[in-house]
Amino acid sequence: MLSVALRHRQGEFTLDVGFEAPPGITVLFGRSGSGKTTIVNAVAGLLTPDAGRIAVGDSVLLDTETGLRLPPHRRRLGYVFQEGRLFPHLTVRQNLFYGRLFAPRGVAAEDPDRVIEMLGIGPLLSRRPGLLSGGEKQRVAIGRALLAAPRLILADEPLAALDEARKAEILPYFERLRDEVSVPILYVSHSAAEVARLATTIVALDAGRITRQGPAGEVLSDPMVLPTGIRAAGAVIEAKVVSHHDDGITELEAGGVPIYLPQVPQAPGQVIRLRIAAQEVLLAREAPRGLSALNVIPGVIDRVRTGDGPGALVSLRTPAGPVLARVTRRSVETLGLAEGVTCHAIVKSVGIAPQDVGRARALSSD
């Protein structure tokens, strides 16, 4: 468990935050200038805050009250930057084992063979970084950080420099890190889709303050915490793979509700995480008939948010989990949408993008 409490003033900007990061991936989420990188630099020891305390488990890294400040090289942190920052004159194998040189004696370290298998970098071991793609470099950088036996891994927007194809390549490896490695990960991002795939916990930031923190599904259902506002709103639900049909459709089940998607790679019985963008959801007061859309999710309206413009955001409680719909104010008035009204959310199967479908931690068996 990472525990952070910081106060720091830099020019006109003031940071005042406190949070705990459990095992898994804790995402610092917010627009540019919200304080994400300041927090990461303080945890890494690259910045000394005006006041604060940082601890990982029983190990205190910083306590300004007592004057304790471990230097960066003694904090045992792994750092994954936007670029891999590999040593160009070393092979992939040598880059990986360079990280292991910093693992303290007597401290349990990750098994190198397991790390290489988990990150899929076995075929790359004899290559030099100049012959790797951006996604491959990032996987090697993650492996190097893991083999240093870190207390904590810091990942500062590690996908920001990658194109969409490379992001899609590396996201499953971060999911495996989240689910299979005991080291907590502090991850910086401002991408709602990326956060929905990866986050165990979200710490939402704005102007140096925490606006909300908690599980990904709860935080992302509140558009007020999103860096891009209502335009990026979407709900996160978990669903179990039921079967793959011959026509290329995968059937899922979430809270007893069937959901159909273009075929996903996960096997029946596995649990996946879906992000359903609010703009892909239609609403109907009655159960629709004769539609091409395969997904109809019944629910009750929790809240209707309207602003100065023509749009509105409707939050629904459903057996599958919270669902958001972005509609017009005219639709709200015409349909009589209000808190407590029964409604049906309609989602096209192809309206859920492949990058919004990912691995979830296994649920306890029923």
UniProtKB/TrEMBL annotation:
SMART domains: AAA. Residues 290-356 form the Mop domain. SUPFAM superfamilies: MOP-like (SSF50331), P-loop containing nucleoside triphosphate hydrolases (SSF52540). It comes from the Bacteria. Gene3D superfamilies: 2.40.50.100, P-loop containing nucleotide triphosphate hydrolases (3.40.50.300). GO terms for cellular component: membrane. GO terms for molecular function: ABC-type transporter activity; ATP binding; ATP hydrolysis activity; molybdate ion transmembrane transporter activity. Residues 1-232 form the ABC transporter domain. The keyword Lipid biosynthesis does not apply. InterPro entries: AAA+_ATPase, ABC_transporter-like_ATP-bd, ABC_transporter-like_CS, Mo/tungstate-bd_C_term_dom, ModC_ABC_ATP-bd, Molybdenum_import_ModC, Mop_domain, P-loop_NTPase. Keywords: ATP-binding, Cell inner membrane, Cell membrane, Membrane, Molybdenum, Nucleotide-binding, Translocase, Transport. The keyword Metal-binding does not apply. PANTHER family: ABC TRANSPORTER I FAMILY MEMBER 10 (PTHR43514). This is Molybdenum ABC transporter ATP-binding protein. It comes from Marinibacterium profundimaris.
